[in-house]
Specification:
heterodimer; A: alpha+beta; four-stranded antiparallel beta sheet; two-stranded antiparallel ribbon; B: 20 strands
Chain lengths: 102, 461
């Protein structure tokens, strides 16, 4: 087993406009990318459960040319609205670091 | 220009005001670009720019970048295209950039025909389009009706490439545009000169972020692209920077909801079949990007409304007894604050809609209710006690009462009068002034690509 954070070169989150939040899980090493892909662990459903959303609200992409996975979700609060805590959406990825990959 | 020739494009940096190396700009000029472009805006800094008319980057930094790009463009006798002036690209932002350019021209003895392309939208126009059913929501979108238009401080439209081309045809050599699609700054000229639209829009998508598509970018910098009939080549201009097929492919992920399909006014850039090949250690060739023209031309709107006035109190807690009951402590504090508001304001309707919120840093300040960690071991916590209300006076009154209630809120472990919060500042509250929220995520279906973006020609110098 390895944690996703140990395999990826970069895990990040960011606004995709004021109403969407997007997550990128990016690799340097094609073998590490393939390992994660083949594991079948990193899915739309997993993202949905971590961010407590119905799966149909999660967009999920595998981007082989970029050795990357990408997921986008509606922002829990619109950017900078009164109770939003992360104007740039930059610190919402931490729970992804600990995903266990066989 | 015919399709078998090439178009060379110099991008100043990712955001005008974020900086670039002067040496990189010179490297770019040496490659004889056909024009220089630079994006100057974003929603990323938040709704304040739309709300206040202010900019995310300091005016001095904007002026430095503009001066260097303007001198370069005038020296090479090529157009300079600046889009989304002043972060939000509304009327005050375009006016600010106009003033800065005029100051530079006077100081540096430059003269040129300039066009301003306005993007701030007339409320009567928006109401008419709304009534006609020609304003449609994107997803997710806030409620949008005539009341929203009325309440909005400012709404801008995001222009496509057409107004840029028209301003150039009409003789402008420098263009300061309000809110624009970042890519439209760079895509119009190559398309008008015969470059395939897929190639042009994809190159534009890379160029609008300056050197962001490089392998590692220690600081913002320029980027150069050479577009030919069915491909484009990318080259960073700082010799220390390099592009790799991976870095360029990965750039399509940045700040996009969908890495394969990028929506523009006139269609969709489809990267599904794009390929990335190394030309050498630093340059990458891209092919296969496609552009699907839209059945209906749309213009995206961005707008902000006043959310209220805010005052915050910063404090910290070190007492482990308070830390271990922080959630119930915050609940009790909130209850007491509501009680004090009832005492002091009575039934004053002006104070009815305030929001009192405590952010607990060291526990879940960053992720709020989505924080998966429930057990904390922090030996101290930072509290931001935040009040948002209809006026600054109400917000500050409530914040001041919250400070006092928090300071002496009893806990069962101690008998006697306690002081349970450390406040670093006196006065303890900070007035944040007006705060805004984005209130539009919609598109307009205009009659043509120009009607929302009037062009004004100005003789500078």
């Amino acid at each position: 087993m390895a944690r996703l954070g140990e395999l990826a070169r970069l895990i990040r989150s960011k606004n995709a406009g004021p109403f969407e939040l997007t997550f990128d899980v990016m690799f340097d090493d094609p073998a590490a990318f393939e390992r994660v892909r083949a594991s079948g662990v990193l899915t739309r459903e997993l993202i949905a459960s971590i961010y407590r959303l119905p799966a149909e609200q999660v967009k999920f992409f595998v981007v082989p040319d970029a050795l990357a996975f990408k997921a986008s979700i509606p922002r829990p609060r619109f950017q900078s609205d009164v109770l939003d805590s992360d104007n740039h959406g930059g610190q919402q990825y931490a729970p992804l670091i600990d995903i266990e990959i066989p | 220009m015919s399709a078998n020739q090439e178009v060379r494009v110099l991008s100043g940096t990712g955001v005008c005001g974020s900086g670039f190396k002067e040496s990189s700009l010179e490297e770019g000029l040496a490659r004889r670009p056909h024009f220089i472009g630079c994006d100057a805006g974003s929603t990323d800094p938040g709704p304040f720019s739309l709300g206040t008319g202010g900019t995310a980057f300091p005016v001095r930094a904007i002026k430095r970048d503009l001066r260097l790009m303007l001198r370069a463009a005038r020296k090479a006798r090529i157009p300079l295209l600046i889009g989304s002036a002043g972060t939000a690209g509304g009327a005050p932002h375009v006016a600010l950039f106009k003033r800065i350019v005029e100051d530079i021209a006077r100081e540096d003895k430059l003269a040129f025909p300039m066009a301003l392309i306005h993007a701030e939208q007339d409320k009567a126009y928006l109401k008419r389009r709304l009534r006609e059913g020609r304003i449609k929501p994107l997803s997710p979108a806030p409620e949008f009706d005539e009341g929203t238009i009325e309440r909005a401080v400012r709404v801008v439209g995001m222009m496509g490439d057409a107004p840029w081309l028209r301003a150039l045809e009409q003789g402008a050599e420098v263009i300061i545009a309000g809110r624009s699609s970042d890519c439209a700054i760079f895509a119009g000229i190559p398309i008008s000169w015969g470059i395939d639209a897929g190639i042009a829009w994809h190159a534009a998508k890379i160029l609008e972020c300056g050197a962001a598509a490089t392998v590692a970018r220690p600081s913002p910098d320029c980027m150069f692209a050479t577009l030919r009939a069915d491909h484009f080549d990318l080259e960073p201009l700082d010799p220390a920077l390099r592009c790799s097929p991976l870095s360029v492919a990965a750039h399509s992920l940045y700040e996009n909801g969908d890495p394969f399909r990028l929506v523009e006014s006139s269609g969709v850039l489809d990267l599904t079949h794009a390929t990335y090949e190394p030309l050498d250690e630093r340059r990458v060739r891209v092919r296969g990007s496609r552009f699907e023209p839209a059945a209906r031309y749309t213009v995206k709107l961005e707008g902000a409304e006043l959310a209220g006035y805010q005052s915050i109190v910063l404090g910290s807690v070190r007492d482990p007894y308070i830390i271990r009951q922080i959630d119930s402590w915050v609940e009790r504090l909130t209850e007491r604050v509501h009680g004090r508001v009832a005492d002091v304001f009575g039934g004053d309707p002006a104070a009815a809609n305030y929001v009192f919120n405590v952010r607990i840093y060291g526990k879940n300040g960053t992720m709020g209710p989505l924080e998966p960690v429930t057990e904390i071991r922090s030996h101290e916590l930072c509290l931001v006690m935040e009040t948002t209300a209809a006026t600054q006076e109400i917000a500050t009154t409530i914040a001041s009462m919250a400070r006092h209630q928090a300071l002496h809120l009893p806990i069962p472990e101690w008998r006697g009068f306690i002081t349970g919060v450390a406040c670093p500042y006196s006065p303890a509250y900070l007035e944040r002034g007006p705060v805004y929220r984005f209130c539009v995520n919609h598109v307009v279906e205009p009659d043509d690509p120009y009607e929302m973006f009037p062009i004004e020609h100005v003789k500078v110098g």
